[in-house]
Amino acid sequence: MARPRTFDEKTALMAAARTFRRHGFADTTTEQLCTAVGVGRGSLYNAFTSKDELFIRAIEAYLQALSEVEHEVLGDPARTGAERLQGLLDLVLEEEENAARDGHAAGCISVATLMSPDLRSRDERIGKLVEEDRSRRHEAVKHAARIGQADGSVTRDDAPDGIAWFVSGLISGIRVNAQAGAPIKVLRRTAATGLRALRP
Amino acid sequence: MARPRTFDEKTALMAAARTFRRHGFADTTTEQLCTAVGVGRGSLYNAFTSKDELFIRAIEAYLQALSEVEHEVLGDPARTGAERLQGLLDLVLEEEENAARDGHAAGCISVATLMSPDLRSRDERIGKLVEEDRSRRHEAVKHAARIGQADGSVTRDDAPDGIAWFVSGLISGIRVNAQAGAPIKVLRRTAATGLRALRP
DNA sequence: TTCGTTCTGTACTTCCGAATACAAAATATG
DNA sequence: CATATTTTGTATTCGGAAGTACAGAACGAA
Lengths: 200, 200
Fold this sequence. Notes:
homodimer; 200 residues; mainly alpha; Tetracycline Repressor, domain 2; 10 helices; DNA-binding
């Protein structure tokens, strides 16, 4: 009934997310987004209203995709609690390894967005999205920690909530270290050291 | 012999640094800088050439001030290695506590700058400054770790270099968690858990 | 084939913020 | 007190990036 799109929306959002992740919101021009998505200005604005709107939809898509993969690992009944936490760290390490192969660090919308108050105040949905993502992951890790304490694979020196915060921090730390140029091998050891603190 | 400045340069730089830390480079306008420093546009440009130049000098001043305080703790011969590392973490926690009292997280130029590749590519001095700061801290922590391994207060499960990366990551993680809204109490526990991994 | 509808690309407008120009002000020195 | 010199504040310019307008293109349906 009308002219069809020459691009897939989901693919476009993921491409946009990649660009935003690497350059940050303010330092990404709409032109960069056009080339990244492989589409003209007109199409971009036709499909996604504005840069702000595109950003919101892009991080939404990205965070959801990420969350699904993580959920699979953290909720895997075949693993002990400790193995689930280890699995989560492995996902992060794998992502950084892939990114490193392309010559850059993975970047992380959560960290970058959290670190920019102005970005959050730009549109309340942004802060909300990131906060929901964080909170969902927090609960998932907390649950895995409880499982681990029950099956004896995780220390009881900390409450599950404390463990969840620690794991989040550990992941953020690894991401920042990756940006600082730490080689994969070092990132792996950092993860191992961190997890060691959670052994019973 | 000429009209004197109405402001102190060092104070101005620290005020600018504070502003940049909270909003990030791209999201800080020169007007914000003027009000933060308490000076007109003309004066600002007269004293510091451009926004870029001001940014560079501001982070330079800030990182140096920070580094001096940290050096005192990490090099304190009265402390064991573990106590020095604990002291470093205490500095970070203290900074976050003060910031929290003002209703915001401390922010961290290192993390923010590392997380923004475009910012670094803007002027090579920026990346260099942050990298030098990181590297200096890295060496200082590594040294403290060695001391700790020698005096028996720090584990030998990891090499000093690995410990240094871990501690940097731990600090970054704490800063990110602070931005995410974690209360001081949680940050403290995260630090404690991390340091537990370094016990012999 | 023709029409209605949506997509695409380009040229244009608009706006915001960095940077500059310049006149007035403030001091030290002779 | 006069002059040289630097600072200060304001008005203005300038550039770049976001967003818009619009004409043409690509389909499906009648």
